[in-house]
Amino acid sequence: DIRMTQSPSSLSASVGDRVTITCRASQGIGNYLAWFQQKPGKAPKSLIYAASRLQNGVPSRFSGSGSGTDFTLTISSLQPEDFATYYCQQYYIFPLTFGGGTNMEIK
Amino acid sequence: EVQLLESGGGLGQPGGSLRISCAASGFTFRDYAMSWVRQAPGKGLEWVSTVTGSGGANIYYADSVKGRFTLSRDSSKNTLSLQMNNLRADDTAVYYCAQDRNSYGSGGIDSWGLGTLVTVSS
């Protein structure tokens, strides 16, 4: 199985900050990488697929990059509604696997 | 607009069975792969199972549910179902129905349902 390792597992940031979350795959997955946002008590929301393609309706302050084994999610200027937990997921091969999540909190 | 509405969650006994379903609308159901993803209380997301679309019969399971859970789809009713047998306490989770971007299951999850809670306890 492909192991997805996210870092950091949690971070504190302020409105307006630029933040980056990293996701590393245990083997190459091309660009078969998605990012999801989840708020407490809510379903996940799709943000990015194919490593860098923005889901319709997602603000342009979100961006994704990377290929192979190393990927990043960047939020260029944090907004109050962005404080949530973020997950990466590989869909290169079954079993599909998720990273452990990054909990983003307000500083 | 894509809508995925899960139902059938509730309390199940250890060793017992439950069936959860997902009613899909807003897209051509048969053309897309569909999945279940679960989340145990306070934990992260865990993929459970995927069925391919467009008449394909490929079904994939996580090792943790293989041999106990059975995924099926009824394209005449636009419904995805998960039959869960021999339930265990660690099956307790919110179960989300999810639509893939293509029929093969290689497009990534596009849309999510709201989830249904399954609790396994005596």
How is this structure best described in words?
Chain A is mostly beta strands. Helix content of chain A is 0%, strand content 50%. Chain A is built from no helices and 11 strands. Chain A has strands at 4-7, 10-13, 19-25, 33-38, 45-49, 53-54, 62-67, 70-75, 85-90, 97-98, 102-106. In chain A, the strands form 2 sheets. In chain A, strands 2, 4, 5, 6, 9, 10 and 11 form a 7-stranded mixed sheet that branches. In chain A, strand 7 and strand 8 (70-75) form a beta hairpin. Helices cover 0% and strands 50% of the residues of chain B. Chain B contains no helices and 11 strands. In chain B, strands 2, 4, 5, 6, 9, 10 and 11 form a 7-stranded mixed sheet that branches. Chain B has a 4-stranded antiparallel sheet with strand order 1-3-8-7, with no helix packed on it. In chain B, a hairpin with an 8-residue loop joins strand 9 and strand 10 (109-112). At the A-B interface, strand 4, strand 5 and strand 10 of A face strand 5 and strand 10 of B.
Layout of helices and strands, plus pairs?
The complex is a heterodimer of chains A (107) and B (122).
Chain A lengths: L3 E4 L2 E4 L5 E7 L7 E6 L6 E5 L3 E2 L7 E6 L2 E6 L9 E6 L6 E2 L3 E5 L1
Parallel strand pairs in A: 2-11
Antiparallel strand pairs in A: 1-3, 3-8, 4-5, 4-9, 5-6, 7-8, 9-10, 9-11
Chain B lengths: L2 E5 L2 E3 L5 E8 L8 E6 L5 E7 L7 E3 L7 E6 L4 E6 L8 E8 L8 E4 L3 E5 L2
Parallel strand pairs in B: 2-11
Antiparallel strand pairs in B: 1-3, 3-8, 4-5, 4-9, 5-6, 7-8, 9-10, 9-11
